[in-house]
Amino acid sequence: MTTCVCTASPIDGSKIKSMTALFKETFRLDASDLHLTANTPPMYRVKGQLQPLKDHEAYTSQDIETLMDDILTEKYKEVLQTRRSVDFAVSINDVGRFRVAAYYQRGSLAVVCRMLAAGIPTFESLGLPESLSKLPHIRDGLVLVTGVTGSGKTTTLATIMHEINATFSHNIITIEDPIEYVHQNSKSIINQRELHSDVLTFAEALRDSLRADPDVILVGEMRDLETMSTAIMAAETGHLVFSTLHSRDCVSTLNRLVGAFPAGEQSQIRQQLASTLKAVISQRLLPNVSNTGRVPAVEIMFSTPGISNLIRQGKDDMIYSAIETGANEGMITMEQCLVKHVNDGKITVETALSAAKNKTAMKQRLQIGEKDGTEPENVKKKTWFKR
């Protein structure tokens, strides 16, 4: 495969000397991410592929330390030195807002900067299923958005918060690391608290928020047992709680959540989740059919009485079938979503197969020949029609 190279003229000789200039290149190249690693030139992720900046010398570890001095506050420098990693967001005039993750590897500082979308998108502009538009209208309970890093969880949650903010008169409290999308008060009051600058831990901030008369609470990530337990308790007491987990699908999300608790408490947690869990959305981003952008593939589970009963009884293996047959409730499995994207001409068959948990089952869904890998004519037309 041919490796593309980002083209730009390095500023001030053979190295770009400021983070602002690097951020401007991110915007100019329409890149999603900027990577800085010692002994490597700047790397940009363009259309999902990492590409080096052409004619740019490799940065040394000291170069990266100097670049970061431009954007690190004293507080974040302290966190970086103490914890050896820090996450924060920064806004650059006439460029945009970036989420920055800085960490040490082999004794040298490495940095990843993600460019955030200007403004807050809508469900429609994100290409998310219409059934997700009912999430802002849930009165109370726990809603989880899951997926790997970079799968769009934060953007989906920002869209939900924006819709709640514009529709209801609520007190919304978010706890984020870092704050990526900045919300303005509309019909609701929305208070955004950032780890390290406003609060010390997710668990502590979540406990504090319960004393602030909240209607809606967003916890950026449930990283530990205390945060999970408090979030479930908050959902039980009449609050609408949103959070994220790093898990692959809806069933593994339940397994991870329950499995985080001691064995003696898991039965009780299942009882609590059966009554409080309202929805799980698992998503990932896939290259579109022309490789000019990405398409969200989404698995959706709404907690119907039947699914609640399966959670309560620990029959997780039957939940997948319940999702698959729950189209009338707005549910869809990842495999069903992949097939739909292929048939709608949004992704290729190869992309669908690479994203599927079971390639053999996916081939059967797409009616692909097992022996020669060929596709029926109707699938070919649907797959390549919009290329």
Please tell me about this protein's structure.
By secondary structure, the chain is α/β, with parallel strands linked by helices. Helices cover 35% and strands 22% of the residues. It is built from 15 helices and 13 strands. The protein has helices spanning 19-28, 61-68, 74-83, 123-126, 153-167, 202-209, 225-236, 250-259, 266-276, 305-313, 319-324, 334-343, 349-355, 359-366, 377-384, and strands at 33-36, 43-46, 49-52, 85-92, 96-105, 108-115, 141-146, 171-176, 189-194, 216-219, 240-245, 277-287, 294-302. The strands form 2 sheets. Strands 9-8-10-11-7-12-13 form a 7-stranded mixed beta sheet, sandwiched between helices. It has a 6-stranded antiparallel beta sheet with strand order 3-2-1-6-5-4. Helix 6 (202-209) packs parallel to helix 7 and helix 7 (225-236) packs across helix 9 (266-276). The longest helix is centred in the middle third of the chain and has 15 residues, at 153-167. The two termini are 20 Å apart. The model is unreliable at 1-13 and 370-387 (pLDDT under 50).
Which labels suit this protein?
13 strands, alpha/beta, 35% helix, 387 residues, disordered C terminus, single chain, disordered N terminus, 7-stranded mixed sheet
In short:
The protein has 387 residues and is an alpha/beta fold.
Number of strands: 13
- Gyration radius (Cα, Å) is 22 Å
Mind describing the biggest β-sheet? 7 strands, mixed
Helix-strand category: alpha/beta
Q: Indicate the low-confidence ranges by residue numbers.
A: 1-13, 370-387
Characterize the overall form. Answer: globular
What letter string, H or E per element, gives the SSE order? Answer: HEEEHHEEEHEHEEHEHEHHEEHHHHHH
Give the integer mean of the pLDDT values.
90
The end-to-end span amounts to 20 Å
Number of helices: 15
